[in-house]
Amino acid sequence: MSSAPPIVVVEDDLWMRLIGVVLDPATSAERCAAFADFMSPDERDFAGWCDRLRARAGRLYPSEVRLVPSQAELSRQLPGACALVVESFAVGKEELACAPRLRVVHKYGAVLRNVDVAACSAAAVKVLGIRRRANIACAEHAFALILTLARRIHRIAGFTSIERLAAAGLPYRPFDRRHAPSANFGRIGGMRSLNGGTIGIIGLGEIGREIALRAAAFGMSILYFQRTRLSPAEEEALRVSYRPLEALLAESDWVVPQLPANAATRHLLDAGRLALMKREACLVNVSRADVIERAALIAALRSGRLGGFALDPLYEEPGHSNDELLAFENVVLTPHMAGSPRSNGLADIADLIAALADAILD
Question: What amino acid positions are annotated as catalytic residues?
Answer without folding.
Answer: 288, 317, 336
